[in-house]
Structures are given as C-alpha cells and as structure tokens.
C-alpha cells in the first residue's frame, strides 16, 4: 500500500516552529512529507531540520535550475495527495486568494490539481480583519479547506483567535482530509456542500444557538458555562454551505461570523430565549449553546466590594429559562428540534434522560472529560428514540457536516 503523500508549505510566522513537530507526527503515521519553505518560514525553521525530520529534500526557490531539471514545480505541485499550508499567514492567504504566483509556494498552489488544506496563524486583529475574512471566504468558495485557528495567548502578548492549532489536531485534520479525498466509506455521510454540488437544505431555515451565556452578578462579574462556540459555528457554516438560510444566535465568543450566516449576538439566557423566539419559524433548530442554568436573582448595579471581614456576600440564584424545553412545547416548534448535551460521565445515559425530559427529537452528546471544551475535535453520540449512533472522533467541522447531512435527510 502506497503511503499518503503530503506537500507541506511552511509560511513565515512564529508558529512555523510547530511545523517540525507536525512533520514528525505525519512521518510517525507513515505519511511521506515533502516540505516547501518560504523565505519568511526560513526565518524560524531551517531546511536542514525539516529535511532530517521528513527524510526528503526541502524546496525553497522557484528559480532553481537544478530543481526545475530534476522535478519541475508543476510536477511537484501534482504528485502529492494533499497540499497543506501551515502556518498560513495573513499575507499567504491574501496571495492565495488573489491567485498570485510570485514565489515557489504560491506557484505550487496555483498549479496544483490536488486538495488544499490551509491552517491559518496570525495576530488576533489580523485574523478578524475584514480583509482576511474576505480572503478566507474566497478560498473556501474556491474549494480550499480552512482549519479554524485556536483561541489563546499569542507571542505578541494579545489573546484571542489566531493561534495555530496544536500539531496533534492538525495531523488529525490531515488524516480526515486524506480520507475525504479518497472517498472513504467512513465519510460518505459528510458531503462537501460546495458551489458545484446539490444543496440539500436550499429553501430551509435552520436556527442554531452557540457559545455560552453570561449572567451578570454585578457590572464586572458574571456566571457562565464554558463554551468556545466552535462546534455551533461549524454547524452554522455547514448549514449555509448546504444552501440553508441560517440564523445563528450567539453568546459572547471571539469567532468570525461564517459566510452567508445571519448572526444575532446576545449575552444572557433570557436574551437568547427572546432571540430564538424572534427567529421562528424555522424548519430545524439546533441548540448547541451552553446556556447557564442559573443567574443571580438580583444583579447589583455597582461592583460588590470586599469589606475585609472575611464574610462572603450572599448570592441568591434564580433558574434561567429552559430554551430547549420551552421550544419543544411551543406552538412554533420546528419540525426537527435538536439539543446538545456536554457530559462528564455516563454520557449516553444522561443524554437519553435529557431526550425524554426536554421533549426534543435528537440529543447530540459528547464527553467533555475526554474532549475538553475549546478543542478542535469531538466524539459525539446521536441519541434518538430509535437508539444511539456513536461516531468516530472527528474535527469539529467534520462533525458539523455529518450533523447537517443527517438534518438534510430528516427534513427530506
């Protein structure tokens, strides 16, 4: 059996140092890796390091007579099974979107006829800049897969989305992309809802909630559940790709709005409940948000101060509205109502109990002890009245596509 062949293009950013570990992980999985190092990338990692790890020659220059004689850039661009750009800097994404071919990396990307995966990494403001988001949307429209960056502290000292995902998550995504490219049976239920394919949710309205809610205690403190919003946003993006009109009711997150999605920002559970009701009717509602169960019964209008006595001020709690259960009983109930359950133990049993208690059609459950919130992958269980369908651990955008494929089948 031939080993999968990866052409790895390494852009110029501090995150380039992670490319060495990525190469090591891919080689450990018996993948053949050929590295292309940009001038910027060479400021952070050396051709010698990459050659030693990949056990292959590293390519750096477009106008190298010896390379063009031995292996022209056209051949190099087409002999791989997957082209991976990691890290994909803002400049590299812009040049890719513009169709430039002014160095070896961009020439290869313009000449290739193979699938391309870009893994962005940059400063948070650069990632959220409208120009970068336009470029990302253009690249997605061109059929290039984009792996969302992680959120966290950056080398520049700022915090937010823009960090390169960890090499293990990138390696898992690469394995997934290879399986998709080969048309593996395990991924037949995850169609690519591209411009050229049938859009199974065209004309349907899909309502999605995502992220946490923040319940104020005073002007500077709040109660919240942990949630990055990544899975809900991935589902919204997949639904839009499938042709749906998508309303995304989002709690506070640092994520860009997926292209083609109408986003409604809220803070509290009560605001989210009102926004959900205002967005109806819908053909399906997918309640992914991690809504806080309780709020402060009376939020203070000024910051609560410590008085030095050591006594903790009392905090009376009130129960928040149960958005999923309320929607299940509403006369405007969508024909397909889906809830999410993030559990730490007895995942399937708790999900089955929640399905009966909430009155929804499906519960999608995941074990947050195994896959902590904020990560890039999920292993979920689809729980219905008919039984339990447990899926393999997949990147969150792959989970999203699989969910949307199931939704399309159900609505059909």
UniProtKB/TrEMBL annotation:
<keyword id="KW-0285">Flavoprotein</keyword>
<dbReference type="InterPro" id="IPR003382">
    <property type="entry name" value="Flavoprotein"/>
</dbReference>
<dbReference type="GO" id="GO:0015941">
    <property type="term" value="P:pantothenate catabolic process"/>
</dbReference>
<dbReference type="GO" id="GO:0004633">
    <property type="term" value="F:phosphopantothenoylcysteine decarboxylase activity"/>
</dbReference>
<keyword id="KW-0436">Ligase</keyword>
<keyword id="KW-0460">Magnesium</keyword>
<keyword id="KW-0479">Metal-binding</keyword>
<keyword id="KW-0456">Lyase</keyword>
<feature type="region of interest" description="Phosphopantothenate--cysteine ligase">
    <location>
        <begin position="206"/>
        <end position="412"/>
    </location>
</feature>
<feature type="binding site">
    <location>
        <position position="358"/>
    </location>
    <ligand>
        <name>CTP</name>
    </ligand>
</feature>
<protein>
    <recommendedName>
        <fullName>Coenzyme A biosynthesis bifunctional protein CoaBC</fullName>
        <ecNumber>4.1.1.36</ecNumber>
        <ecNumber>6.3.2.5</ecNumber>
    </recommendedName>
</protein>
<feature type="region of interest" description="Phosphopantothenoylcysteine decarboxylase">
    <location>
        <begin position="1"/>
        <end position="205"/>
    </location>
</feature>
<dbReference type="InterPro" id="IPR007085">
    <property type="entry name" value="DNA/pantothenate-metab_flavo_C"/>
</dbReference>
<keyword id="KW-0210">Decarboxylase</keyword>
<dbReference type="InterPro" id="IPR036551">
    <property type="entry name" value="Flavin_trans-like"/>
</dbReference>
<dbReference type="GO" id="GO:0015937">
    <property type="term" value="P:coenzyme A biosynthetic process"/>
</dbReference>
<feature type="binding site">
    <location>
        <position position="303"/>
    </location>
    <ligand>
        <name>CTP</name>
    </ligand>
</feature>
<comment type="similarity">
    <text>In the C-terminal section; belongs to the PPC synthetase family.</text>
</comment>
<feature type="active site" description="Proton donor">
    <location>
        <position position="156"/>
    </location>
</feature>
<feature type="binding site">
    <location>
        <position position="293"/>
    </location>
    <ligand>
        <name>CTP</name>
    </ligand>
</feature>
<dbReference type="Pfam" id="PF02441">
    <property type="entry name" value="Flavoprotein"/>
</dbReference>
<dbReference type="GO" id="GO:0046872">
    <property type="term" value="F:metal ion binding"/>
</dbReference>
<keyword id="KW-0511">Multifunctional enzyme</keyword>
<feature type="domain" description="DNA/pantothenate metabolism flavoprotein C-terminal">
    <location>
        <begin position="201"/>
        <end position="409"/>
    </location>
</feature>
<comment type="function">
    <text>Catalyzes two sequential steps in the biosynthesis of coenzyme A. In the first step cysteine is conjugated to 4'-phosphopantothenate to form 4-phosphopantothenoylcysteine. In the second step the latter compound is decarboxylated to form 4'-phosphopantotheine.</text>
</comment>
<feature type="binding site">
    <location>
        <position position="354"/>
    </location>
    <ligand>
        <name>CTP</name>
    </ligand>
</feature>
<comment type="pathway">
    <text>Cofactor biosynthesis; coenzyme A biosynthesis; CoA from (R)-pantothenate: step 2/5.</text>
</comment>
<dbReference type="InterPro" id="IPR035929">
    <property type="entry name" value="CoaB-like_sf"/>
</dbReference>
<feature type="domain" description="Flavoprotein">
    <location>
        <begin position="5"/>
        <end position="175"/>
    </location>
</feature>
<dbReference type="GO" id="GO:0004632">
    <property type="term" value="F:phosphopantothenate--cysteine ligase activity"/>
</dbReference>
<comment type="similarity">
    <text>In the N-terminal section; belongs to the HFCD (homo-oligomeric flavin containing Cys decarboxylase) superfamily.</text>
</comment>
<dbReference type="GO" id="GO:0071513">
    <property type="term" value="C:phosphopantothenoylcysteine decarboxylase complex"/>
</dbReference>
<feature type="binding site">
    <location>
        <position position="340"/>
    </location>
    <ligand>
        <name>CTP</name>
    </ligand>
</feature>
<keyword id="KW-0288">FMN</keyword>
<comment type="pathway">
    <text>Cofactor biosynthesis; coenzyme A biosynthesis; CoA from (R)-pantothenate: step 3/5.</text>
</comment>
<dbReference type="GO" id="GO:0010181">
    <property type="term" value="F:FMN binding"/>
</dbReference>
<dbReference type="Pfam" id="PF04127">
    <property type="entry name" value="DFP"/>
</dbReference>
<feature type="binding site">
    <location>
        <begin position="321"/>
        <end position="324"/>
    </location>
    <ligand>
        <name>CTP</name>
    </ligand>
</feature>
<comment type="function">
    <text>Catalyzes two steps in the biosynthesis of coenzyme A. In the first step cysteine is conjugated to 4'-phosphopantothenate to form 4-phosphopantothenoylcysteine, in the latter compound is decarboxylated to form 4'-phosphopantotheine.</text>
</comment>
<dbReference type="InterPro" id="IPR005252">
    <property type="entry name" value="CoaBC"/>
</dbReference>
